[in-house]
Write a structure and sequence with these properties.
single chain, 402 residues, alpha+beta, six-stranded antiparallel beta sheet, 23 strands, globular, binds fe (ii) ion
Length: 402
């Protein structure tokens, strides 16, 4: 941002910039704001590539004071996971377990560019949770859409509208807006998963509603009983290209969500490997979107989910998008370059690429690697703001979505 000069530009004339700031300080008590340099918008170059090697540079020109922008960031599993173990040990030794007073045993990821807010990007919240054997998170329902990306090999469950989904590594379990759900662990070992929500967006819109008064639960009962056969969702929707006609494709009382609530890790792995002989996408490798089987739409109106296979030796071309994307390294290891930073990721690492930063993926490990993605692209598409550009081999920008 330009320095505000205190020296008069023309002797005898009022320095408008200084005078406006002074006037603003006085006017603030009436809750008004005189337009000054301080509220100028960040300027981003749309038609120019910018310097892709300049680390973390988000915008050029004036950046408004007080505006916080998400940064690209990498959470290394080896650094953050010890805190899960510590939380779990503390929970076991406590008179009142954290699930009672904090609702969850987890840490939330905070983007260093957002001043401590509980969010990884403008519209996305991520947490990592641990459930000890016997833990139960009581049944509840809320307006934010949420999902679990399972890190543990086995163990733990989420019960959604009476259907128990047993968790395994790589599973994606949805708790769409307006669905009763509870979580727990009735196994012998602690289980861990990543929670992803559109909470910051709904908070911004003042649209957070949460209900814990589940119909049918009585006394100390905290979890729903199983009212639906296990695996019913698989039976209804797991066969691609075939859709049952006798059900409503609506789950709970929510809106615009997928009725297919449990994507299995092994199915995702098999689907990607079945396509490994394809050329794939030069910017993404072998990539798939998870979609609502009833209409082909993203799983939530606000968030989209996907997975991508980066074959041994694969290097993708640079790409930038107006959406923000959170990545989870589910298998293998590799690198992602983001605006000149290099994230060396390995299993269970999480990183975020916020809007319009150049990035590319490299798998130099000699073995396959797989990333899961969670993105606010569906939201941006709906409001007419999703665009994507790629850098071709001649360093020319090409519009992938214009
Ligand atoms: Fe929830």
């Amino acid at each position: 941002m330009d320095e505000i000069s205190t020296a008069p530009v023309n002797p005898g004339k009022i320095d408008a910039r200084v005078a406006m700031e002074a006037l603003n300080a006085e006017a603030g008590r009436f809750n008004i704001w005189l337009r000054t340099q301080a509220n100028a918008p960040a300027q981003k170059a749309w038609f120019k590539p910018g310097d892709i090697h300049e680390a973390g540079k988000m915008a050029q020109g004036r950046v408004a004071s007080g505006q916080m922008k998400a940064l690209a960031h990498h959470w290394r599993w080896r650094e953050i996971s010890p805190y899960l173990t510590k939380i779990a040990q503390l929970a076991k030794a406590s008179d009142i377990p954290p699930t009672e007073f904090a609702d969850r045993q987890q840490f939330l990821l905070t983007n260093p560019g957002l001043g401590g807010r509980l969010q990884v990007a403008a519209a996305i919240r991520c947490a990592v949770s641990i459930y000890n054997p016997g833990d139960v998170a009581r049944a509840h329902l809320h307006t934010p859409n949420a999902s679990r990306t399972i890190l543990s090999e086995n163990g733990g469950y989420t019960n959604i509208e009476g259907e128990r989904c047993d968790a395994g590594r790589g599973d994606l379990i949805l708790t769409p807006n307006g669905t009763w759900h509870d979580h727990g662990n009735d196994g012998a070992d602690p289980v861990m998963w990543i929670d992803t929500l559109d909470w910051p967006l709904l908070e911004f819109l003042d649209c957070i509603w949460l209900d814990e008064d589940a119909t049918g639960l009585s006394g100390n009962q905290r979890a729903q009983s199983e009212s639906v056969a296990r695996g019913r969702t698989q039976s209804l929707y797991a066969q691609g290209g075939m859709l049952p006609r006798f059900v409503s494709h609506k789950v709970g009382i929510g809106h615009k969500t997928s009725p297919y609530i449990h994507y299995r890790g092994r199915d995702i792995l098999n689907a990607l490997h079945a396509l490994r002989g394809e050329a794939g996408d030069s910017h993404e490798g072998i990539c798939m979107d998870f979609v609502n089987p009833a209409n082909g739409e993203p799983l939530f109106a606000t968030l989209g989910y996907g997975a991508q296979l980066l074959r041994a030796g694969e290097e993708t071309q640079y790409k930038r998008e107006t959406c923000s994307t959170v990545y989870v390294a589910m298998h293998g290891r590799g690198q992602t370059e983001v605006a000149g930073q290099v994230f060396d990721w390995q299993e269970n690492d999480i990183f975020v690429v916020p809007n319009f930063l150049w990035r590319r993926h490299l798998n130099t490990s000699g073995k396959d690697a797989m990333l899961y993605t969670m993105t606010d692209r569906p939201l941006l598409e709906k409001i007419g703001q999703y665009r994507a550009q790629g850098m071709n081999a001649k360093n020319k920008i090409e519009n992938l979505v214009s």
